[in-house]
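From the pipeline queue, job 12 of 40. The input is one protein chain; the requested action is below.

Action: predict structure.
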Amino acid sequence: MSLEKILSIGGKPGLYRLVTQTRTGFVAESLLDGKKITVGLRSNVSILSEIAIYTLDEELPLREVFQKIQVKEKGGKTAIPHKSEKIKLEEYFFEVLPNYDEDRVYASDIKKVIQWYNLLQENGITDFSEDDEDSSSEEE
């Protein structure tokens, strides 16, 4: 499963997998406990494939940050929990992404990235490569 179907819903903990779309929104399943919820169109929803982290040069897609963490951790969970102290989180993130923009990436953002990465690992979602949607449209 790609990050295209993984959602972060404002005000709700953890991540959700898009199950189906409805007339008034969509149904999502929690990666934390497997419960399904209905989400309206007014909810603040972010698709993980659309999220990026600020670096000094550019905005780096979240999937590339996940790939860097995956390489550092040799495919396993992170060495530090997401509830670590701010300084420990920043040190860890600096090892993963040395050129991240410290003025625009807050400790709360780092905490979310680590929490999301570990949650995806627990659910067997470990393929962070880019989808080949562009190549299929070129063939037409």
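Job complete. The two ends are 25 Å apart (CA to CA).
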